[in-house]
Amino acid sequence: MRKSEARELIKQAYAAWDAEEWQRAADLYEQVLAHFPDEKPSAEWWYDAALGHKFLRNWDKAYELGVQAAARSPRGEGDPAYWNLGIAATIRRDWTTARDAWAGFGFELPDGEGEINGRFGNACVRLDTDGEREVVWIERLCPTRGRVVNVPVTTGRRYGEIVLHDGQPNGERVVGGTTYPVFDELLLFEPSDLPTFQVTVAAADPADLEALVTLFTDHDFGAEPASSLTMHCACCSEGTLHKEPSAHASGAQRVSLAAPEGEARRLLDQWAGEKAIGRGWSGLEAVG
Question: pLDDT band at residue 128, thresholds of 50, 70 and 90?
């Protein structure tokens, strides 16, 4: 291939990219890279080709091309080639490559080998399941994975599952003066075996409901009062939302629980029995 032909193909690739024709753009880049893998601008071409396959959710190709893009990118400077490779390597469970990619981006990782299970703080993830979208809180295990710590209302989603999210925030939540990013989910990385139940509880005082939530979370289970859920339009959800810690209500109300049924019943009985008057529950039913 002559350089003049390569320039024309790159021009076509740019046009395809602008039109969001990811497959065509990636194919054109690869045609050029097969002949000119190490030209001065080739790092950008490798990156764009890999990114196109990321948009297509073709993770094997995103990994293959991402390795080449990262090899031509500076380490320790937050170069996005490392981030995208880290995502693709994580999806393939290639922990050696994922660790090297995150280090290349500039992250400090916990010592060791294999799967990364660190403490990267809290964030939010926008779950997306068959068009149903819900923002939940996660505990981040690595730069791209987090454990869900809400009881989702979305059908088929569960407390404790591990989700893999994108690297570019798409919204913010501000709580107590601290800003948390909202990432978009890329895929469900590990399902949770904790079933979801709903129950009606009677709480004489808001502190009673807080005690119920604390009791379940102390046992590594989940409890989510219906009053803690809020609905937002897409524009608001993808913007900056200022939220105050939810104030629990008193009286009869629905609560979603994540726990094995026997444990849910035991903990509900324990909670109700801690006060002679003012606490009760009924109508435990499985919902997911």
Answer: confident
